[in-house]
């Protein structure tokens, strides 16, 4: 039986309970944890089987926060989430990405627009590279995508 505490601590087995609590808070899981019958010791099942997709994403964020990596790679990390879960996950990302190199692979224009730099791939090659605000105004594929999303 895998409990929330052990699930998050998996990233750094020697972490203290306080370290795990801090990671859970940074990942936006405090409300969920507070609503669980046994708090941080609630059984969440193997691979978080008793959690929603958004909750599992936030557990992964808590693990990453606890592991303190210097580089993060997110590949379509919010692709399967509803807007409410996505917002909760993204708030966890903000704290996690601070001070770290982050590669965010996404098809979601709203996420790409938050980046410092966007690299657009086309047919396996770099088609565009620059700041989102610059690419949006230059008549590029990125600006075409942005306009399509903006106008519906």
Which structural category fits the helices and strands? Answer: alpha+beta
- The helix count comes to 8
Biggest sheet architecture: 2 strands, parallel
- Beta-strand content bin: 5-15%
Number of strands: 4
Q: Order of helices and strands, N to C?
A: HHHHEHEHEEHH
* Whole-number mean pLDDT: 81
Shape: elongated
Low-confidence stretches: none
N- to C-terminal separation?
46 Å
> Rounded to an integer, what's the Rg over CA atoms?
18 Å
- The percentage helix is 40-55%
Strand order of the largest sheet: 1-2
Concise summary:
With 152 residues, the protein is α+β, with helices and mostly antiparallel strands.
Could you describe the 3D structure shown?
By secondary structure, the protein is α+β, with helices and mostly antiparallel strands. It has helices at residues 4-9, 17-26, 30-35, 53-67, 83-97, 109-112, 132-136, 141-151; strands spanning 71-75, 101-105, 118-122, 125-130. Helix 2 packs across helix 4 and helix 4 (53-67) packs parallel to helix 5 (83-97).
Feature tags:
alpha+beta
Chain-wise SSE layout:
Blueprint: H1 4-9, H2 17-26, H3 30-35, H4 53-67, E1 71-75, H5 83-97, E2 101-105, H6 109-112, E3 118-122, E4 125-130, H7 132-136, H8 141-151
Parallel strand pairs: 1-2
Antiparallel strand pairs: 3-4
Helix pairs in contact: 2-4, 4-5
């Amino acid at each position: 039986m895998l409990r929330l505490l052990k699930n998050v601590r998996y990233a750094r087995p020697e972490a203290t309970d306080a370290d795990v609590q801090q990671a859970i808070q940074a990942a936006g899981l405090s409300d969920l944890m507070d609503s669980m019958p046994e708090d941080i010791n609630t059984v969440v099942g193997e691979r978080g089987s008793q959690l929603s997709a958004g909750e599992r994403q936030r557990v992964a964020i808590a693990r990453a926060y606890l592991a303190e990596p210097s580089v993060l790679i997110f590949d379509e990390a919010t692709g399967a989430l509803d807007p409410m879960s996505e917002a909760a996950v993204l708030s966890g990302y903000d704290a996690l990405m601070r001070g770290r190199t982050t590669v965010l692979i996404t098809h979601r224009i709203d996420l790409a627009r938050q980046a410092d730099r966007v690299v657009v791939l086309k047919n396996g090659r770099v088609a565009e590279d620059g700041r989102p605000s610059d690419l949006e105004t230059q008549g590029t594929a990125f600006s075409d995508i942005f306009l399509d999303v903006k106008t519906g």
